[in-house]
Amino acid sequence: MIHSVTLDNSKCRGCTACIKRCPTEAIRVRNGKAIILSDHCIDCGECVRACPHHAKKVVCDAWDRLSDFDYTIALPAPTLYGQFRNLDDAGAILQGFTEIGFDEVYEVARAAEILSDHARRGIQQRAQKPDGSVNLPVISSACPACVRLVLQRFPKLIGNIDTHLAPSELAAIRARADAVRKTGLPPDRIGVFFITPCPAKMTAAHNPVSLPAPVIDGALSMTEAYLRLLPAMKRADAPPPVTAGLMGIGWAVSGGEGKALLGERYISVDGIPNVISVLEDIEDGKLTDIEFVEVGACTQGCLGGCLTVENPYVAKTRIRALQKYMPVSQNRYEPRQDESILFPGRLEPTSTWQLDTDMAAAMAKHNKIEELAARLPGLDCSSCGAPCCHALAEDVILGTAEEEDCIFRVRELLERGGEYLPPPFREAK
Predict the structure, then answer these.
(1) What are phi and psi of 2, to 5 degrees?
(2) What's the CATH number for 1-59?
(3) In angstroms, how far is CA 117 from the centroid of its own chain?
(4) The sheet that has 218-221: what strands, in order across it?
């Protein structure tokens, strides 16, 4: 799987709602239908939320994949705990997973506490450059959509990205290793499934940003998990204890990761437009007095993922209610043999805006794009099917659009007495 966000052409009406919300200009409307540019998409889910016709959808793994393995483990994201009303004991959710076909449950919140414990040992060391200087602030790597956003739009900030694995990845690695020791089964016969709140983490499960190969066998929709768990939880008579504390559960809420660091010089930003604004400030050197920036593409953090059920503000209240009687933390970082909780390699920028492989040709195209963009009205109305006038200029020079796709240019042409033929007749001519 390259992307989990897909388009249902039968439902697409060719409106521009999705174009205006996409943070990476990954959507065009051509011939009355939207097109998702695969090399630009970061699976943030903004188009899924914005589409009034439900033409954008998220593809998740099927539940019948559990039958492909001899032993299955569920990795519930802490976001799941905020989806149920009148939930006094999150252990009922854990028992519910065993009722619906899983052999074991490993809480992602547990891995989050391990990562937080390790991270407290020094943000300065995590941002250390080879020359001894430090990249501050450190940018959280927990949200794969935000990491991909940095790789694509803010390559200068790659050195600021936290080098810890995501909690779901560490949970998968540890859960599989523990199951191998417990069952004696080979690792490939143990299926590890993440219960995801968003399409970005769905994609990251199959196409991870920081790892050379996936460590999660599948990602299941939190919405479907919720529907399956509701009747199963009613049969939970002796729920097992939750293995994480309020710090791990708190990662579900915007600000939870930053609070778990027990520091003061951090900020938490949620919602992709706000994340872009803060990343621009970091790029401009305006936040050097901040040590850590927690970023989440969704409103209220993972609670606002488009695969969740509950309103994120209501879910936030439920998470706080659960945290009230929890210990602060139940997990600490203890090194394991042949295991790292850091990225095994370096992150590289994503070359999605390359105009040509030849530098001279690329510069020539760039100049033509700027010239054409200067002639366009600059209204960024998206009526042409591109997100802005500059994007239309790029499309025209790259041969995927026509200058006359701009309705204002057509009006000027007609006012001058010129001839205009709509797209279906151009080829015929």
Answers:
(1) -90, -45
(2) 3.30.70.20
(3) 23
(4) 104-105, 71-76, 190-196, 218-221
- Tokens 């998206």, residue located: 382
What CATH code would you report for 358-429?
Answer: 1.10.15
All structural domains of the chain with their residue ranges? 1-59, 63-323, 358-429
pLDDT-based confidence at residue 296 (cuts at 50, 70, 90) = very high
Side-chain-side CA neighbours of residue 117 (13 Å): 18
Can 1-59 and 358-429 be said to share one CATH topology? no
Mean pLDDT value across residues 408-419: 73
Contact 250, 323 (CB under 8 A): yes
Structure tokens at 64: 């019948």
Helices and strands, counts by H and E, the chain = 17, 11
Hey, CA dihedral for 252, 255, 258, 261, is it positive or negative?
Answer: negative
- Kindly write down the DSSP assignment for every residue of 6-73, as one continuous string: EE-TTT----SHHHHH-TT--EEEETTEEEE-TTT-----HHHHH-TT--EEE----GGGGGGSSEEE
Note whether 184 and 370 are within 8 A (CB). no
Give the C-alpha separation, 258 to 240, whole Å.
28
pLDDT mean across residues, the chain? 91
Residues above pLDDT 70, as percent of the chain? 93
Structure tokens at 229: 């768990």
Say what the pLDDT of residue 313 is. Answer: 97
CA dihedral for 344, 347, 352, 357, sign (positive or negative): negative
Report how far residue 2's alpha carbon sits from residue 6's, in angstroms, rounded to the nearest whole number: 11
CB 129 within 8 A of CB 273: no
3-state percent breakdown (helix, strand, coil) of the chain, nearest 5: 45, 10, 45
Structure tokens at 410: 């057509």
Phi, psi of 163 (to 5 degrees): -95, 15
Minimal CA–CA distance to 142: which of 242, 248, 35? Answer: 248
Strands 56-58 and 5-7: antiparallel
Grouping H, G, I as helix, E, B as strand and the rest as coil, residue 177 is helix
Instruction: Tell me the mean pLDDT in the region 272-299.
Output: 95
Span 52-91, pLDDT tens digits: 999 999 999 999 999 999 999 999 999 999 999 989 899 9
> Nearest-CA neighbor of 50 among 23, 25, 20?
20
- Tell the burial category of 361 from Cβ atoms under 10 Å away from its Cβ (0-12, 13-18, 19+): exposed
Residue 227's region, left for phi above 0, alpha for psi from -120 to 50, else beta, is alpha
At 79 the pLDDT is 98
pTM summary value: 0.91
Neighbours of 224 (CB within 10 A): 15
Contacts of 317 (CB under 8 A, 6+ apart): none
